[in-house]
Write a structure and sequence with these properties.
The protein has about 1200 residues and is an alpha+beta fold. The chain is built from 39 helices and 33 strands.
Amino acid sequence: MTRGRIRARLRRSHLYTFSCLRPSATEEGAHPIEGPGYSRIVYCNQPLMHKKKPLKYRSNYISTTKYNFLTFLPKALYEQFHRVANLYFLGAAIISLTPLSPFSAVSMIAPLAFVVGLSMAKEALEDWRRFMQDMKVNSRKVKVHQGEGIFDNRPWQKLQVGDVVKVEKDQFFPADLLLLSSSYEDGICYVETMNLDGETNLKVKRALEVTLPLDEDEAFKNFSGTIKCEDPNPSLYTFIGNLEYDRQVYPLDPSQILLRDSKLRNTAFIYGVVIFTGHDSKVMQNATKSPSKRSTIERKMDYIIYVLFSILLVISLISSIGFAVKTKFYMPDWWYLRPDDTTDYYNPKKPVISGVSHLVTALILYGYLIPISLYVSIEVVKVLQASFINQDIQMYDEETGNCAQARTSNLNEELGQVDTILSDKTGTLTCNQMDFLKCSIAGTPYGVRSSEVELAAAQQMANDLEDQAVERSSVSRQKGKQQEIELETVVTSKDEKDQKTPIKGFSFEDDRITEGNWLKEPNADVIMLFCRILAICHTAIPELNEETGSYTYEAESPDEGSFLVAAREFGFEFFKRTQSSVYIREKYSSSGQAIEREYKILNMLEFTSKRKRMTVIVRDEDGQILLLCKGADSIIFDRLSKNGRLYEPDTTKHLNEYGEAGLRTLALAYRKLEESEYSAWNTEFQKAKTSIGADRETMLEKAADMMERELILVGATAVEDKLQKGVPQCIDKLAQAGLKLWVLTGDKMETAINIGFACSLLRQGMKQICITGINSDAKEVIKENVMMQITNASQMIKLEKDPHAAFALIIDGKTLAYALEDDLKMQFLGLAVDCASVICCRVSPKQKALVTRLVKEGTGKTTLAIGDGANDVGMIQEADIGVGISGVEGMQAVMASDFSVAQFRFLERLLVVHGHWCYKRIAQMVCYFFYKNIAFGLTLFYFEAFTGFSGQSVYDDWYMILFNVVLTSLPVISLGVFEQDVSSEVCLQVRLILGWMGNGLYSSLIIFFLNIIIFYDQAFRAGGQTADMAALGTTMFTCIIWALNCQIALTMSHFTWIQHLLIWGSIATWYLFLLVYGMFSPTISGNAYKILVEALAPAPIYWTATLLVTVACNLPYLAHISFQRCFHPMDHHIIQEIKYYKKDVEDQRMWSRERSKARQKTKIGFTARVDAKIRQLRGRLQRKQPSSLDANSPMSPSS
């Protein structure tokens, strides 16, 4: 068992002060475990004890699916008949089995079964994909103790409470575990919790001292113990329990608990016992059930169908009343109907019964007003739209090999209606990499490369100066030479950047201090001290890459890693750490030889969010004790001595410039200590370190604060937080499209704010509203304080008069808990909506979901949540649309999502392109569906009125079936799949729907009455005979097919050969069907026997009527769109014409003007940040120009 432990012989706890060293567990006393919420008992290494109740707990199998094998049929049927139209047609199908039906049972049941079956099959397929991804996780392997000290691999899903598991480096924890021991002698292990709280810095966990000997497989042969602890709950940061072992009781706290889906890092292996499994684990407790999401259009369709159903009811009532009147007053005179020998349905003596029975018949007869094929057509269209999203090459990520995936097609059109995006930070906006870019040493700035913000601002300024061509430009060129050099450097450094091999974590470029040139600088001794602080003040572990021969660093944070890479590149390579020392190889020295130096670590005061600094006290080879410190500039500057402020003014200036450039900054300082001074302090510090009680943390803080004083400033660092590729640009485009972005992260506030600056959600000059809770035990006091902060902030925004002023709201998780309470949440939401950007820090997964729900329900607008880890599952499921980031560790977010993309930047194309197209297509498709069904369905009603409300259909049953299934469905599907325009203004507004319904009413009147007028008493055949009902019905149906397909051709603005094929092919199919159907025996074809060949085709009036009716139906719509395009064009009409006439190439000014119209002014994003930078630079120019003009004036004193 020595393998993997060579490097691990360090007692890692000696490196830590605040996070790791604690008094012995036995000294603290056991937790009182009793009462409700504390009933869980775990028998360690005895999983058989948990086979029976009450100790039988949930299995480790997890499921994120919506259905299972038992619930699929009832739940899926409920989903389908939750739709109003399907419910109506179910009733119609049942009635079709009775004599009251005007159609055969098959013609009513078959379309319903087809529609519902197809939709259910689609649901089953999508859920099956979720199931397969669940199985991928459940089938992961972990080593489990089988007995007799033997460990063997077992799938996660078969893990049981009480099992002892062995997890190795870079593996995920399969369940919530109690840490027993690790590869380090003192039971320390490093854990990455990115999937839980979004933080990339490693957490230190520690085992109880009593279980440290359990560090080999054989040690578990006779191991047993009992854990009594809290019941399953969603709190990630708390745990209360006791371990009974060797007749002693030891208290447990969160530092011994390893949570499912967190990852073991920098540790060869750990042993742990399973406490919570599957859906009892804390990460799954934070998850919510997969919701059934319906799009806005689908919900609106239900209301429109209610309207159509009301129309159906009205005309059915008219029809039934008409039939009752006819039966009572006219039936006795119609002797050929045998009124003396008839059923109750046609009995003149019982007109009420006849009317009621006819009402049922009419409801089925006019049922074609309700578009049964609408839902299935939309399902087909959405599946095809989803396949286009899946196959979009522009959303393919070459690095990971992942493409975008529409995991459900129900919400395609919702992508075009998103108002607010709620995003995770780590792994979503960032790629967890920092690049050392600039530094300030001894008041001198180093680093010539520029951030993206500087590049964009310089480019924009250059463009503006070219356009202005004012007289003052010559003066500014002469007198503002330094600024031009800065801009030139900014623009040209990009080319140089591409010439060198990139080094991960190091984008610095300045020949003055690289390659040992720092020795020639006037402050070489300060530069050397700066580099030594970078190389010594950290907690990282070096690892030799045997292939390259260079060292890589396992650091607790990406910042630390970038500092060590920078120190290495400057010639100060950290290459070894022992229990008490760090070793630095100094490549460049005055002697010209590389020198290895040892620094003994005396104390380490690590970084915490409260301290905002890290200090290490070391003894160098000469015996000198040095205190080396790095931290936030505000903290460090407050601790400088009078003699240590020599470089403060220049460093402050540089820090401000770095901040404006979107870089993360830290200040570096040091102090030399006398032996006696250090010894006296260390005595006090060790006393505080070993104390027991509530005051221990305060005593440690006080002792540390005493020493971290009288510092001497050395310089400052500026690192660029490596966002995922294209994130600032994507946020900028989304902001210009009018979308709002909230960042919800489990990371600490400082990190979140830095990321906000990096991705341009925050910028210099933006007013930050930080809402934090006060330290108090009284919850009411804290809540009142939070309420006061929110009220004051809202008032401040209302009183702001500067039009360029922008506000950012920043709130932490503890305060957010109060802000989300019922009596305060709407006030909080109001403040958040008024702010340009919102950042919520230290939030739990549950809080992410609650914030998402608040935004969704409070604003009433479409929300989208995007994340990559298990901690994002709650908000992904709660939002109207959930997007998971694939290609990063963990697939939980993807499994719970509706869409997945490989990187955040693809969100722009998903929303702005696919979202817009899908919404426009579906909206037009729905409008057209209602148009065609009204146009068709009302002709049945008109014929009824002409035939005494007899219930007779003018169309053959097969015509009715083919109308929705074949003859008009394929062209409308092509509209939904291929139509493209350039705008997003079309939506399901009432006015728009009524317009299409009015068009349908007009078309139905033209189709019926024009045909009646033409055929009523005109000769139809060569022999002079008039047309019968079959000829009239077939001619009317032909006119319907032509009119509706020509209408959809006029609606389309983008044609492909597929659309032409489906539109004109549908018309050709109708004639082909008539020909083939007419060839069947009259027992099958009925009155349609050879109707095309013998009756319709030879009759010129048939062709003339078809042409006349088609033109009359489409002429008003053609006139409307022609008038609109000529006199009141919409934005997309103009852009279509510009593209058609290639004006976007020939006339760039026109094209730029039209493009700018689509952009909304925004106070966040890259553009807003560049605008602010330009305003600042222009202000400087304006201040310089008057002074330069005065200096050159002939009236000046110097002359």
